[in-house]
Design brief:
The chain is built from 15 helices and four strands. With about 400 residues, the chain is mainly α. Helix 4 links the parallel strand 1 and strand 2.
Amino acid sequence: MKELLRAAFVIARRDFTAVIFSKAFIFFLLGPLFPVVIGVLAGHLGQDMTGDEKRPVIGVLMTAPDMQALRGAHDRLTSQLGTNALPQLREGAPASSTDAMLNQRKDSVTAVLSGTLEQPVLTGQKGEIRRMEGDISLLISTARAGTTLPEIRLETRAIARSQGVQQQARLLTGRAAQVLLFLLTMLLAGMVLSNLVEEKTNKIIEILAAAVPIDAIFIGKLMAMLAMSLVGISIWGGTALIIYFASFGFTSLLPPPAVGWPVFIALGVIYFAMAYSLLGALFIGIGAQASTVREVQTLSMPVTMGQVVVFFLASYAVNKPGQPAEIVAAIFPLSSPFTMIARAAQSPAIWPHLVAIPWQIFCVGVIIRLGVSLFRRNVLKSGSGKRAKRLPLLKRLAGRASRVQM
């Protein structure tokens, strides 16, 4: 066992150094920057679309007192409901008509409100009228009431903690941790597969297999890719925290998990290592059977789709604490890390994690052993087996030839 671990550390150091000190690793670190930039641009575009451009414009053809009452009611309602809660009001010229306002390109009027407050008339397309009828009715009712509408002042009492709010906040933290764990695992686990296939293609794996045990090769590669992933996550996480605190400050933190932030972060690192090792061990086993990139893609697709289904199972189990769905998701090896990180956000109990982590380590070992045995049987022993069968045949032929010569 000691020699196996020593050989595994040698392989891990070799792969880790080769990846970290390569130029490709810099581009690997810059890879997530492009989706972030696109997300920020899309967010700004979405804010523009949900701003004034999304609010319909209502042209108003009423007398000055009615228009003043409507504006007062509009200001009063928007101060309570929000700026974008009601359509915009656009006062028309005294000589304007309903058709003229609807056909103006400059103002982009959606509908026209005419008549009086007692007998209002809303003119526009059928779908637009149906969509804005409730808002306009509320606006006109408030304008009719004027100052006679009583203003309600609520007495508020702030409390330090609410069990319902705290539970929902922890559920949000657990789901966010699940999504982050899944995205990082799926993003980084494929590197183990590509690394193994590349070395198989270059015949390097056969040289390593002649020098160290196959178990050490598999464990070493898994350790190297996991260490490289943790380096990338540390850089990405540190940069994200700096940007977050610079933008929102230290007072806008996520809801705290049930076990506390230090324990939750430590469990997050452990469960990422378990999820990565489980999926990486599967990918190593697949890479041991494939000889080309096309075969890798064909064999890894079912595993990837299966992992998505596993993530959905873990997400479903978040709302079922203590129920059979959560217990099954916590026991099943591939979904166990995602389920347990969500449990850490919702429950302060530590003993379930002390049970789940050794179980996941055991499953990683089983998957690695299975991949090693398949690799030996399908790759290494295939050539040696044929040579073992041919050797007695050559001896018999040589014996017959010697007897004929005698």
